[in-house]
């Protein structure tokens, strides 16, 4: 397992689950203190190393009890957003393309795309993911896919 400082610096001291700042000087026993989360996908092949990411101790502990929830930014204008964590896991397991949200205009879709790519790069640093934006039903559809 990596040490907290190395992982924290690589992840810019942001919790991969809640996307909030992790205080590097906080006690590791504090709920908001740093911890290293080793996550191995349920679909990973045996012998594949786990992905290590920075998390608040409380976020990491909660993830052990329930499936992780990676929330969409409240600053985005997205309609019918899909759960990010589950979408990434389905793409990891099956590949393909998954529609993750709809946006009222192309500008909103581009903003959501930029945010989503940044967010999933920390969620799944081992996957090369891309987004696709296209018209659909009078709105713009945002899809997540493996980068080719």
For this entry, give a set of tags.
2 domains, 148 residues, three-stranded antiparallel β-sheet, globular, 24% strand, two-stranded antiparallel sheet, 4 helices, 5 strands
Indicate the radius of gyration in whole angstroms: 16 Å
Q: Note the run of SSEs as H and E.
A: HEEHHEHEE
Count, helices: 4
| Adjacency order of strands in the biggest sheet | 3-5-4
Give the overall shape, derived from the CA principal axes: globular
**The biggest beta sheet, please?**
3 strands, antiparallel
Helix content: 25-40%
Structural class: alpha+beta
Integer count of domains: 2
Termini separation comes to 31 Å
Kindly state the mean pLDDT as a whole number? 86
As residue ranges, the low-confidence spans are: none
Beta-strand percent range? 15-25%
The total strand number stands at: 5
Structural features, described:
The chain is α+β, with helices and mostly antiparallel strands and 148 residues long. It folds into 2 domains: 4-65, no CATH class; 84-146, no CATH class. It contains 4 helices and 5 strands. A hairpin with a 2-residue loop joins strand 4 (129-136) and strand 5 (139-146). The radius of gyration is 16 Å and the shape is globular.
């Amino acid at each position: 397992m990596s040490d907290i400082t190395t992982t924290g610096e690589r992840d810019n001291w942001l919790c991969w689950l809640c996307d909030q700042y992790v205080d590097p000087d906080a006690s590791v026993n504090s709920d908001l203190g740093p911890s290293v989360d080793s996550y191995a996908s349920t679909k990973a092949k045996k012998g594949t190393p786990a992905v290590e990411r920075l998390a608040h101790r409380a976020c990491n502990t909660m993830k052990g009890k329930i499936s992780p929830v990676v929330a969409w930014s409240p600053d985005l204008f997205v309609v019918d957003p899909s759960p990010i964590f589950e979408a990434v896991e389905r793409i990891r397991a099956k590949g393909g393309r998954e529609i993750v949200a709809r946006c009222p205009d192309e500008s909103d879709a581009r903003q959501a795309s930029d945010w989503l790519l940044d967010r999933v790069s920390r969620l799944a640093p081992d996957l090369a993911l891309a987004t696709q934006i296209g018209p659909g039903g009078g709105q713009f559809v945002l899809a997540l896919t493996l980068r080719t």
